[in-house]
Amino acid sequence: MGGPVFWVIFIYSFMGVHGVEVGDSSHIQKKLQSPSEEQQPYRTAYHFQPPKNWMNDPNGPMYYKGIYHLFYQYNPYAAVWGNISWGHSVSYDLINWILLEYAINPTDPYDINGCWSGSATILPGEKPVILYTGDDFKKHQVQNLAVPKNLSDPLLIEWVKSDHNPLMTPVGDIDPNFFRDPTTAWQGPDRIWRVVVGSQIDGHGMALLYRSKDFINWTRSQDPLHFSLKTGMWECPDFYPLDIKGENGLNSSVQGRATKHVLKASFNDHDYYIIGDYEPQTDSFEPQTDFMDSSFQLRYDYGNFYASKTFYDSSKKRRILWGWILEADSKTDDINKKWSGLQSMPRRILLDKNGKQLIQWPIKEIEKQRAERVNYQNKELKGGSVFEIEGVMAAQADVEVSFDLPNFEEAEFMESQFVDPQLLCSQKNASTRGVIGPFGLLVLASKDLTERTAIFFKIFKGHDKYVALLCSDQSRSSFREEINKTTFGAFIEIDPHRENISLRTLIDHSIVESFGDEGRACITARVYPELAIGEEAHLYAFNYGSQSVTITSLSAWSMKAAQIAPIQKRRRPPVT
Ligand SMILES: *[C@@H]1O[C@H](CO)[C@@H](O)[C@H](O)[C@H]1NC(C)=O
Ligand SMILES: *[C@@H]1O[C@H](CO)[C@@H](O)[C@H](O)[C@H]1NC(C)=O
Ligand SMILES: *[C@@H]1O[C@H](CO)[C@@H](O)[C@H](O)[C@H]1NC(C)=O
Ligand SMILES: *[C@@H]1O[C@H](CO)[C@@H](O)[C@H](O)[C@H]1NC(C)=O
Ligand SMILES: *[C@@H]1O[C@H](CO)[C@@H](O)[C@H](O)[C@H]1NC(C)=O
Ligand SMILES: *[C@@H]1O[C@H](CO)[C@@H](O)[C@H](O)[C@H]1NC(C)=O
Ligand SMILES: CC(=O)N[C@H]1CO[C@H](CO)[C@@H](O)[C@@H]1O
Known about the structure:
By secondary structure, the protein is mainly β. The chain folds into 2 domains: 309 residues, Glycosyl hydrolase domain, family 43 (Tachylectin-2, Chain A, 5 Propeller), CATH 2.115.10; 188 residues, Jelly Rolls. It is 6% helix and 43% strand. The strands form 7 sheets. Strands 26, 28, 29, 30, 31, 32 and 36 form a 7-stranded mixed β-sheet that branches. Strand 19 and strand 20 form a beta hairpin. It is globular and about 70 Å long. Bound molecules: 2-acetamido-2-deoxy-beta-D-glucopyranose (7 copies). The site of one 2-acetamido-2-deoxy-beta-D-glucopyranose has 4 residues, from loops.
């Protein structure tokens, strides 16, 4: 017994499919319908969130023996940050989740003030391990190791901390307040493990490099993997290879000519990345363009998205990104609604063909949640027009649309290449008439359009190039005063012969995740409408430019809710 077949059936029954052993069935019943009950209009249906309390960074995501694991920074006691433990959930498809007991709790001198972010590494012989930051009894940040208690338990429910903890401590020039968030480790051709830890030394953001033969005894490298004189503290660094030519993802230990490496760091409330060449012999990393070096900063997401982490999914040979999506309401609202924080839709990451940036796309599995569909083709949107897309649940939908563009000659001129796209989006908002654009979608909109979130494009002509501006305008997303309604924006370079541009938007009650131009620019927003909730939410396409644009095709689907259910402590074998 205990073989994989047994466990597949066993866990299947836990998923509630056989209707047995699922902890809180009233919760599931609710999730199967829609979460838009009166008191909880903002809970999401197909994004990951625990039933209650505070959640922040995704931690240690991994695929192990047929099961996806997601850990996350979690406060077991309240909807505010504090008492941080590692929440743990498992899934077969990255959409439906079983909530397990906490994997790591603050119980030891080296993590008593919190078990903070970290990553999983799968060691040879299929042995997963976790490196995480502990806030110790002196409130110093240190790096610790935890391993599964029983490798035969397919859910890896129990984790034990190493007797050798802490493994890395803030000695020498390292400030004990700025030493955290170890990455997934990788092995060089010399079989030595490397890991980087986020830091700030003399005010400069830094990825400190450590090496180890045995994963226990770690030695700091004299040189960091990378640092920047133009940023402060780097939180949650991530470092991984991507294939230059193919679409397959790579595990973190792949190096060589056919790869580019991505270094991501979280600072200034955003996740910035750079792409370059990594040389494992010398552990040098040479980026094509460095952080803050040009006016065009690469970010995973130009909206609300932070402290992300990727992992390599060996079953589908892809690299997947998760990010923490913060609330944009007040702390009081969080306490009243009893929860705070979402995880983004997991996104597959690819290198763009030009090698200069990443492309992100919601994982294929989400398409299984699609239900009723409406479809339009070759619909002309004359300047100043709005039309309603009816027949889908507008508060819980997936929309894919492609627009045929008019001739660019008429495009508005943009003075400077140093314009901040976010600023441009708030000045040239969805209500401001333009030439080519604004055109796009109005989501979570009230029938009379007094409340709406607008996701739109606008085409500009620069001195030597054309750009599409992608905006997510939250300025009229809610009548509620206390909500942060900052508008977000991103530029996408387009060539003058470009005929069309696409937008995909995932709408889930209080989150709007948009992927512009096949995933070249992503913007996530949190919105909390007062009128446009549940059945009262509407979906529109619009064009406030003077030039007509044509919707080549638009498909919208209602989305089924995911099952996110707790597991009971007492376990019983399945009835087969
Ligand atoms: C380890 O897990 C397997 C599968 O759940 C179980 O059969 C076995 O008894 C466990 N071993 C221990 C020492 O708990
Ligand atoms: C730890 O590794 C370093 C470098 O490899 C070595 O010099 C040192 O002796 C090791 N310490 C222990 C306790 O194994
Ligand atoms: C990573 O991928 C390479 C190339 O496919 C393979 O040789 C290596 O065994 C993999 N390593 C791990 C830890 O999976
Ligand atoms: C939209 O832009 C116009 C013109 O710049 C401005 O007058 C208006 O206040 C803006 N609306 C919002 C809600 O920011
Ligand atoms: C609102 O959100 C933006 C973007 O996330 C942030 O820069 C700004 O500081 C926030 N404003 C307030 C008042 O919190
Ligand atoms: C977009 O335009 C390209 C040519 O520029 C064409 O190959 C493609 O089929 C078009 N896509 C759609 C959805 O119309
Ligand atoms: C239940 C529990 O342990 N709560 C603790 C959370 O953290 C605060 C201070 O950080 C403690 O005062 C609580 O006792």
